[in-house]
Amino acid sequence: MSGWLIVVGLGPGAEAMVTPEVSATLAEATDVVGYIPYVARVPKRPGLTRHASDNRVERDRALHALEMAEAGQRVVVVSSGDPGVFAMAAAIFERVEEDAERWHDLDIRVLPGITAMLAASARAGAPLGHDFCAINLSDNLKPQALIERRLKLAAEADFAIALYNPRSKARPDALDAAFALLRETCGDERPVLFARAVSTPEEHLRIVSLPEACGEMADMRTIVIIGSSRTRMIPHAGRPILYTPRTTP
């Protein structure tokens, strides 16, 4: 097969956070596939066709990309952040596994990007500086009971926790429910970072204690990071530094 399919991460928003490797790959592409706002981040140019679709049709999008690559096109599937973190790389491979023989010889690659949680952590300091986990609060692809179980176990293990997709119009109470569970499990005043639209002109960071945290402080452009019991703040000019020490008692 002469075509190829490469799944890339466009980073959290700023053009400067797109890796040179991803930029070079986009320059070679004949087709770009992805969720509408992510495809819009790729500039139009002669020889490039952009295929934008809704965020609830990942399976269809994955098959379309595979079929174009099979036909000889140079296809780039775009995600924000990193394509392997709650994004399109897994969706592509789910489709590949369903018909592994058909796609056996197709050139399929994944190029990493800067995740939203790592960009948010860097802006605040290093709240993910020790053991941490990432949990997607969306219940589109997994049951709510599983989300709650993972939140509780992560808190009991004293991980710092990064929450993706914390709140939406369809799930206005999801984040408040998560905070209630974490308050019951943790029982302390560990810091919570709300990092909205990091690396864009709309960037906004806010740090509150877990008892003060509420769902209205976030939207779907927000990454929420709940510190561990050892996460702390250092007073500093401009804004406090939030970090989790690597040493343990």
From TrEMBL:
Q: Does the keyword ATP-binding apply?
A: no
Q: Which GO terms describe its biological process?
A: cobalamin biosynthetic process; methylation
UniProt keyword list: Cobalamin biosynthesis, Methyltransferase, S-adenosyl-L-methionine, Transferase
Pathway membership of this protein? Cofactor biosynthesis; adenosylcobalamin biosynthesis
Q: Where is the Tetrapyrrole methylase domain?
A: 5-213
Stated EC number for the protein is 2.1.1.131
- The answer to keyword Nucleotide-binding applying to this record is no
Q: Which CDD domains match?
A: Precorrin_3B_C17_MT
GO molecular function term, any single one: precorrin-3B C17-methyltransferase activity
Which top EC class is named for this enzyme in its record?
transferase
Cite the PANTHER family for this sequence: COBALT-FACTOR III C(17)-METHYLTRANSFERASE-RELATED (PTHR47036)
NCBIfam families, per this entry? cobJ_cbiH
Instruction: Report the protein name in the record.
Output: Precorrin-3B C17-methyltransferase
**In which organism is this protein found?**
Sphingomonas pseudosanguinis
